[in-house]
Predict the 3D structure of the following.
Amino acid sequence: MPNEADLAREFGVARATVNRALRSLADTGLIERRRRAGTHVTMNPVRRAVLSIPVIRAGLEDEGRRHSHRLLAKEEGEAPDDCGFGPALHLVALHLADGIAYAYEDRWVNLHAVPQIMQVDLTQISANEWLVGNAPFTHGDLSIGARRAADLAPHFTCSSDTALVQVRRRTWNAEEPITRVDLTFAPGHEVQAKL
Amino acid sequence: MPNEADLAREFGVARATVNRALRSLADTGLIERRRRAGTHVTMNPVRRAVLSIPVIRAGLEDEGRRHSHRLLAKEEGEAPDDCGFGPALHLVALHLADGIAYAYEDRWVNLHAVPQIMQVDLTQISANEWLVGNAPFTHGDLSIGARRAADLAPHFTCSSDTALVQVRRRTWNAEEPITRVDLTFAPGHEVQAKL
DNA sequence: GAGTGGTCTAGACCACGGA
DNA sequence: CCGTGGTCTAGACCACTCG
């Protein structure tokens, strides 16, 4: 594409305005910009969907449902290899919506990054919620898969062959891993996104 | 939070600079801004994950896998109610990666919006790909769920109890529905996102 | 009505990185 | 090297909307 200065002249606007417009297009992935190389229309416009990740409690309460949770297990130990950290707190909890099982949480927290969590009464506040307020993170990743209910079936009172959505989330603060959590949702749950 | 003019004075920068910074924070959801009401820190900072939705062919080829597809069914008919349109083209196709089943596609296309699709040889180019190039859309939504393989098991040569990821995508051009597609992926597939 | 954010201008300097 | 986008400034007008 023409450079910013030319576009500004062509449309009779200031260069800053062109810059803002092009930046917006770049943010949505329709064009790619590199210094000196110029601005190019993206070959395969990869559509980006945005999905909101609310704190479980807030997400439920927005829908008018009451959230509670039960801590099923809590123990110190070595995190699995793919967590990227060693000494960890392993938590297993069940989230309930209006008293009905909503999500099963299996979490590893990096004790090197967040030692204070040992002092917290996690039967009162869910790890999810405490971490949001006390352990900031800069970035993370998310992978959404499907699994058979198998041994989780009793929690959801479903057949062990039921297909459940499982979301794995890992977060970092700069280079330091914070936590890895697997959330397995009740049958029928869907992750929503807009694009 | 203080208003833009005050922040500019406090930090000794131009108001435009403050505006750009705050806009960036607002885009990531950390603050909320309303005219006259001012700028407020978001109570429940909903994290937003961004997931890339490539054209199936492009996504696979980026990974060095060869894409092909087989059209399993094609017929005109009335779209299901929740599509939001009537006369439709119903397509069923199987996407293959290196000759192995990768995704099962069940699609309804709004013939009122995209009548030209009737002239296209969809055994040559997948509907997915053709629509990307010929039927622009302004927005859409996405829901990701899990289902048993059930009658799809033969396509993926898996047990009918296998849990599969299913993605439903609907797209609109302004107010006009374009297409609704259900993509069911091979066992083990995960949808990736960054946050 | 008035205060807020939204947007634009004209000009400037700079960092990056491709040719 | 030097053209490109990235960023900032100082000032201005406007649109929205809450009190």
Observations:
- The CA atoms of residues 109 and 146 of chain A lie 23 Å apart.
- Residues 13-17, 20, 34-37 of chain A lie near DNA strand C (CB under 10 Å from a C1').
- Strands of chain A lie at 31-34, 38-41, 47-53, 67-78, 87-97, 100-110, 139-148, 163-173, 176-185, 191-194.
- The mean pLDDT of chain A is 90.
